[in-house]
Write a structure and sequence with these properties.
Elements lengths: L6 E3 L5 E3 L3 E2 L5 H14 L3 E3 L7 H11 L7 E6 L7 H12 L6 E4 L6 H13 L6 E4 L3 H10 L6 E5 L7 H10 L2 E5 L11 H10 L3 H11 L3 E2 L6 H7 L9 H8 L16
Parallel strand pairs: 3-4, 4-5, 5-6, 6-7, 7-8, 8-9, 9-10
Antiparallel strand pairs: 1-2
Helix pairs in contact: 1-2, 2-3, 7-8
The structure holds NADP nicotinamide-adenine-dinucleotide phosphate (NAP).
């Protein structure tokens, strides 16, 4: 079995845990307890955003867990409506989290004003308040535009990826450019967990369908960001380092691609 390290190194040397805990749609009141459960289960990476309105609860959960802040990798994102005032909104995020830095700060979507916002993120990075910076939902064309701007390259691009939308070309581009790809909605928001190919493999490997999907992404060198509010799922979703999907089965999973977006099912090309 090829042993996978628990972290990947970003282009600036910062280590990012390969499995992160997604908290979108988890209520601010509830998220503190859920984050504590996740930390207990072994997660050392949490993915939130201004737009999720739960940074405060996430910060509380980390604090209450008793874990040293430095041992946790915390990501938050600048919301599109705040692209005209990144510095101010970044400070507001820190205040909500009750932290003096984040590990990764992302532009949430490539909306109007993103170029200027990116320059501001570079400043935040240079001031040492974000250990790394990146983008989310960017395509190759937009990443090329950043390159032409001549400043910093994003360390991360967070996009929707699952076996049903594998974004092979974008992943290859990012990996060649030294940009780590994070997979969001890696469990298709629960919508395709019943797929037959995945469940047959789950039986064969004595794993859950979710574990097969997460491990598939890890073997493609993606950072996987599953979300869960259910203790049993939280625990099992990170138990993905003790098995390996064989090359032939990886191909089977790769062939499930149909550019299906669980986030925008209407946009899917099925
Ligand atoms: N940058 C962006 O624009 C963007 C967009 C979307 C998401 N994200 C990030 O990515 C994270 C994950 O994506 P997501 O929240 O859209 O969805 P997801 O992780 O693909 O799926 C979550 C769903 O799967 C269920 N689930 C989780 N583990 C399971 C298991 N072992 N067995 C059965 N069901 C299971 C969850 O239910 P339970 O809670 O009951 O387990 C929930 O309904 C988000 O939380 C967020 O941090 C980022």
């Amino acid at each position: 079995m090829t042993k996978l390290s628990k972290t990947i190194e970003l282009s600036n040397g910062v280590e990012i845990p390969r499995v992160g805990f997604g908290v979108w749609k988890i209520d601010n009141e509830k998220v503190s307890g859920v984050v504590q459960t996740a930390i207990k289960a072994g997660y050392r990476h949490v993915d939130t955003a201004r737009a999720y309105k739960n940074e405060e609860g996430v910060g509380k959960g980390i604090k209450k867990s008793g874990l040293d802040r430095k041992k946790m990798f915390v990501t938050t994102k600048l919301a599109v409506q705040d692209f005209s005032r990144p510095e101010e909104e970044f400070e507001r995020s820190l205040e909500k989290l009750k932290m003096d830095y984040v590990d990764l700060y992302l532009l949430h979507w490539p909306f109007i004003g993103w170029k200027n916002a990116w320059k501001e993120l570079e400043k935040i990075y240079k001031e040492g308040k974000a250990r790394s910076i990146g983008v989310s939902n960017f395509n190759i064309k937009q990443l090329e535009e950043i390159k032409r701007m001549g400043g910093m390259k994003p360390m991360v691009n967070q996009v929707e990826i699952s076996p049903f939308i594998n974004r092979k070309e974008l992943v290859a581009y990012c990996q060649t450019e030294g940009i780590v790809v994070e997979a969001y909605s890696p469990l298709t928001r629960g919508k395709r967990l019943g797929d037959k190919v995945i469940n047959d493999l789950a039986k064969e490997y004595r794993k859950t369908a979710a574990q097969i999907m997460i491990r598939w992404g890890l073997q493609h060198d993606l950072v996987m960001l599953p979300k869960s509010e259910t203790e049993e799922h939280i625990k099992s979703n990170i138990e993905v380092f003790d098995f390996e999907i064989k090359a032939a089965d990886m191909k089977k999973l790769d062939s499930l691609n149909e550019n299906y977006s669980a986030l925008f099912p209407g946009w899917s090309r099925k």
